[in-house]
Design brief:
single chain, 43% strand, 3-stranded antiparallel beta sheet, Immunoglobulin-like
Length: 97
Amino acid sequence: MSGSLKYITGWTAWSGDVEEQSGNYLALHFEVEDDSDATITVQLTKGKHGAATLDSDGICIFRIEDAAQEIIVTAYKDGYRPTTMRVPIHGLVLEEE
């Protein structure tokens, strides 16, 4: 993954915690091809929050603090073994405040 993440301040829709209302944010969409019955969880390594289960739109927004972090994506479906994918973000440039 490559690109630059702008620094955003005062994003109250992201969090009620003032410390998390500014930073570099990354929006991604995840889906399981041809399978709307699958459940997808995402987690940012070295993040402040645990894994989150995506709703049907498959969109997740991450607050990135370090380009050495990774996103761990796991898809589950009853009767099948979970599939996990690691998404490195080390190619991102984080704009400073």
